[in-house]
Every structure is written in C-alpha cells, then in structure tokens.
Amino acid sequence: MSVKEPPVVLEEPAPERRRLADSQPATTVDRLKDNLYYLRGRGALEISGVYLAIVIGFVVTSLVNPAGFAFLNSNNLSGVLSQNIPVLAILAIGAGVLMIAGEFDLSIGATIGLCGVVFIRTANSAGWPVAFAATVAVGIAVAVINGLIVVSTKIPSFIATLGMSFFWTGVSIYVNGNTPATFFPGVRTDTMVNLMAGNYGYFRSQLVWLVVVGIAAWFLLHRHRAGNKVFAVGGNAAAAAAVSIKPKAVRLQAFAFLGVMVGIASSLYVARTSGMQPGTTESYTLLAIAAAVVGGCSLTGGRGSVTGMVVGGALILTIENGLVLGNAPGFYVQLFLGVAIVIAAVFNKFMEGKAT
Amino acid sequence: MSTLLGLEGVSKNYGPNTVLKDVSFQIGKGEVVGLLGDNGAGKSTLVKIMSGVVSMSSGRYVWDGEEVNRVSRPETERRGVETIFQDSALVPTMSITRNIFAGREITNRFGFLKLRAMDAITTEILDSVVAIEGIRSAKQLVSSLSGGQAQAVAIARAVHFKRSLLILDEPTSALAVRATEALLNYLVQLKSEGVSSVLVTHNLHHAYKVCDRHIVMNHGRKILDTTREDTSVEELTAAVVEGAEGVKRFRQGKPLA
Predict the structure, then answer these.
(1) pTM for the structure as a whole
(2) A-chain residues within 8 Å CB-CB of B141?
C-alpha cells in the first residue's frame, strides 16, 4: 500500500485585493481631511497660508506701532486695499482662467484703456447702466477677436496678443483722441458711485464686486462642466479632443470670459478714477498675469484655482502697500515686488511636485 | 454574424506621405478582431480613423449597414465607440474622476457637477474593471499615477462608456501580468454581451489567444485578413515581420528567411 502524499500546492492563492471603496472616508470629518489632502500642491492652499502670515505680520506691526505703520487705519484698508485689490484680482481671475486653458492675453492693459474710454463716453451720452453693459460687451468683443486670431491661425497667443495690445491702444486713442476721457458733470450719479466705488468705512463697494465675481467664477471653473473642459483642454488638448471636447471652442470661451472680467474691472477702475487716458493702463497686463502665477496658475496650462488668483492679486498689492507704509523709497517697491513675485513662482513650482 | 463596422477603400495622406492605402475590412457584432503589424504599418492611424479623431482622405465608413458621411468623434461617441489610445489620452493635471467623466460629466440641469456621485462611480469602476494596485483615491491627480495605473484608468473609462465597439491600441504595453490577463479575459466576456472589440498589439500571443480574426497591416496596406482557425502564431509572425512575402513563403512551407 502506497503512502498517499499530501497534495502539492503549486500556486499561492491570489491575495484578496484591497478595494478602493472600502478605504474611502465615511464621516464628514474624514471627508474634509481627505479634501484638504487633495488640495495640497494646487497653489491656493499654500499661497493663502503665505498671505495670512503676511497679513498677520502687518496687523501686529500696525497694532504695536499704529502711527509708524498705519495698516489698520480705515483710510488704508478702505482707501487703498479695498479699492486696488478687487480690480487686480478680477483681472487675475480672467487672465488665470485663460492661462488654465493654455493661452495668454498680453493686451489686457490696452483693453482696459479702450473699455475705460467706452464706459466714460457711453455714460456721458446714455447713462452709466448702459455704459456698464457696453463696456462688458466691448471687453468680450476685444477678447474674442484676440481669441479668434489665436485659435484660427495657431500663432502663439503670446505674440498675437502682444501685437494686438498695440492695436487696441491705437483704437482707444483713435476713438478718444489724446486727451483723457472724463465724465461730464452729473454723469457720475450717487447710485453709480455707491454701487461701484462707495466708501463704507473699512471697505469699499469694489470688495463686494470681488466677492460676487469670485464666487461665481469659482463655481464656473471648479464646479461646472464648462470649467472642467477648460482644465481638460489646457492640460492635454489631444486627450480633450478624444472625448469630444472642442479645444478651439473652449479656448474662445476662455477668451470671452477674460473679456467679461476686463469689462467689469475697467468699469470699477473708471468709476473710481473718473478719467481714462489711453496708454496708461499697460502695467495691468503683467500684474494680472503675475497675480495668477503667484496664485498657482501654470504657464503651460491645466493648473490653477480662482482662490489662488484672488489671493495672488491680494498678495502683490498687500506687499506693495506694506512697502509704501514702511516708507520704502519708490524704486525699492518695484525691487521687492519683483523679488516677491519670483519667489512665489519658484515656491509654486516646488509645490507642484507635491500634488497628489 | 452581422457587420457592425465596415471600412471600404480607406486611404490617408499626411501631405505627401501616404499612411494608409485602400484598406477595407469589416468588424462583426460581438467579434474580437486583432489588428497587427510592425511599427509604422498604419495601425494607430486606422484606430484614430475608426474612433473618429482623425478624418480619412478617401474611403467609406459604414456603420451597421449605413454610411456615415462626416465621421467625427461626437458621431462615433453617439454610436458607442470607445478607444483606449496608445499614448493614454488622459489629462495629467486632472483627478481620476474628472478624467473619466471629462466631456461626459454628470451634472444637474444647470451644468453644475455632481462630484460626489462621479467619485462614487469612479471608485466602483476602478474596483471592478481591471486589477489596479496602488491607487488610493478617485481624487488623485493622474500625474501622480504610474504608467500602468494611468493605462488602467484609461481602460476603465473606455470600458465604462463603451456600448458597441471597444478599440484598444497597445493596451497591455504598460500593464502588469495579472492586469493583462484580466483585460484579455474581459474581451472574451464582452463577446457574450454582443460588444465588438479591436485589439491592436505587438504581442501576437495575446492576440492569438483572444481574437476571432486577425488583420495584419504592412506599410499602410492590409496584407492578411484571416480567422483564427485558418492561421497560426507562426503565420502571423511571418506576416508581421516580412509582410506579404512572408505570408507567401510561409504558405509554401518554407521557414523564415
């Protein structure tokens, strides 16, 4: 009688695979932690932290030495920060969304000049509500023309819009002449001033515009299918086309969105300054792009967030404000600002690698 | 077996370069077709034409007996064609969920995303479709995945949305052995659901194992179109390596040169 050998196990049974569904957060707290974890490396979280640290620093300095560093003074908060930040931040949202789609617009500053002229001249003849609508319409038209040139000729948007920048400045001088456009007496009504440049103690009405525009832009970009397409086209246009997204149409939409933002920002700008000299707003182009980059937008597209863009704009202007309050000589302001922008960009590049 | 997709006399030129010359073949309903050939044979161009991403220079695209005049991606998508591209067509800067639903987002009637529902479905299909190790969450960016994981996500997406034809362009190149097995078995399973598939691969053993029919391309021409019963791995090898000459020689019983 032969001895029965035990059966030989040739292969170990495959280990039970850990299911993804079992490791998902179940409670609200876990879900929040999870969401926070996946915000890392997107730019917004990090730059908000930096901004918070700077603001806290300024607030403490101001509390210690209110006379020497008047950061918390209502004139400063209302008169400087809440007037300047909304205009730049709204421009940064437009420039940033376009950058996510993978394009640039270097004619933003020139378009502000044209839009400003349109606002003032239309307000003089037809009142400010019509002027506001006309300004936004002109902003969209200008941006869509730029966009059409870019998507139909496939010229890099960098070059195309650089050329168009001179063109639009030329158009605004042609429309307006060389003297600054100004409101006729009585055109700047109380309602208009209250809505677009009203002083409410520690803040001005521009801040309300920023909050409304920012929230709307956030939902459109991060929670709407239109925004999803912008990210897809900027991140990998070929992949987007393979799932029936039309890259050209999406890029044009991003240009049009920038146009809306420039229209709104220009209206707020002239409502405050009461005048517009074509050719004096060029610096806004690079400031808006810098704000978007500081806020985590990638120069190659596909990356960025509305929160980052707004905080980026706020960061640049708050640092500038701190330098002025600290009595830094004029050229130092530029110097520090330049350094701050470059450091922020390097910081973002570093954080990109940490994204999961 | 009735025909699902027929290509008739398809040619494709890129400027002076002819990539496809007068290619015709048919894919039956529920059939698994292997599309074989050396590099530069025109397989990937054929895949892009079938999926509507690239237009053909001349030829007819016949779907279910009816000619499609303007073949575009939305047109093929409507008919239930899904493709897994060789250069895994994902957006690296987006999350897995947003990639899977890009262009086909689940939204409310105002177009706002239902992210939680999409995350749940993504988790579900990642768990069920292919064996993928090491993905932590549907919220992960695709750029944080390995090549094999990204490929698996692309496969999961195509498998989730396919309704009539699944085209796989070199799907196994970045996959681990077990995931490859799972994918090949899945193609066989699709047959019973009446879904056709086209498998483009360099690996003749994979193709021979699961495909009902084999089409071999060489320099933009179709040189062999045969059922599995009528061919062997050896004949396919001869066709891929040596082209039409190789097939002739093989059929005459001569060994590979």
Answers:
(1) 0.89
(2) 355-356
